[in-house]
Amino acid sequence: MSVTVRVPAKVNVQLAVGAARADGFHDLANVFLAVGLYDEITATPSPQGLRVTCEGPDADQVPLDDSNLAARAAIELARRYGRTPDVHLHIVKDIPVAGGMAGGSADGAGALLACDALWGTGATREELLEICAELGSDVPFSFVGGAALGVGRGELLTPLEVGGVFHWVFAIAERGLSTPAVFREFDRLAEGLDIPEPVASPELLAALAKGDPDALAATVVNDLQPAALSLFPELADTLAAGRAAGALAALVSGSGPTTAFLTRDADAAHRVADALRASGTCRTVRMAQGPAEGATIS
Ligand code: C5P
């Protein structure tokens, strides 16, 4: 018997970042939108003990030890329910690795749901979300999907209404960026500045609720973008190529280095994707729509 769970990637349509807290984390106003690029996690009983395997174009960059969030999810769930994490977790990876699209978080959320179903723990959704929050700031959102405002570290979620489908193009960069390194660079660039409390933009929430891509494009903002560009200056060329091809908005996704391009419709998305491929400023180009469903047993 085995259980397979599909989990979406995310793009942050607003990422407002506050000053560093005493614990090193940053308070956020993080407007997440799940998009239709998915990792699939299959949990199968493994009498030999916990094992993680991964397939996909970037599989060689995925750690297979206990630092993988999928492994940590299995270990934490097993600990809480007094059992051993005797499970094989196989990840079919389609979300870019170290790309700012919550691929690692998706695997954590997916493994948690898959192990929970496999073991029949009877855990409530609240308990599972609590474990998600322990695993990482973005893991609760990977679990719930759709669109949500995350505050605190990003783990305290309020679901958001979305009035339509948004068409996105994602340019995957030649290399990854480390999230802690991008936050450190944010702190360095913020030194001596007065950083305001992060708050969600009412105009942006209204644009999402209306499903209006032009209004959303006018309000998207990522406070980590200057830090990501400072560590990875070539991303400016990718952003410029997407804008020149008619994207309504171009921004770094989360901590990057994936760049995200909002388009008016599917045709425009194809045009932007073709232009980005031809630009030579990125490794791969993907199209996806949002919102997408959260972690789902398939
Ligand atoms: O929560 P997660 O493990 O995904 O966070 C990875 C790193 O990103 C943290 O160690 C921290 O450096 C940074 N981070 C932060 N503030 C947040 C979320 C993440 O500084 N709200």
Tell me about this structure.
The protein is α+β, with helices and mostly antiparallel strands. The protein folds into two domains: 3-160, Ribosomal Protein S5, domain 2; 166-290, GHMP kinase, C-terminal domain (Alpha-Beta Plaits), CATH 3.30.70. The protein contains ten helices and twelve strands. The chain has helices at residues 69-80, 103-119, 125-135, 139-144, 179-190, 202-210, 213-219, 225-231, 235-244, 266-279, and strands at 3-20, 26-45, 51-55, 87-92, 147-151, 156-159, 166-172, 221-222, 249-252, 259-263, 284-290, 296-297. The strands form two sheets. Strands 1, 2, 3, 4, 5, 6, 8 and 12 form an eight-stranded mixed beta sheet that branches. Helix 1 (69-80) packs parallel to helix 2 (103-119). The longest helix is centred in the middle third of the chain and has 17 residues, at 103-119. The two termini are 14 Å apart. The model has no long low-confidence stretch (mean pLDDT 97).
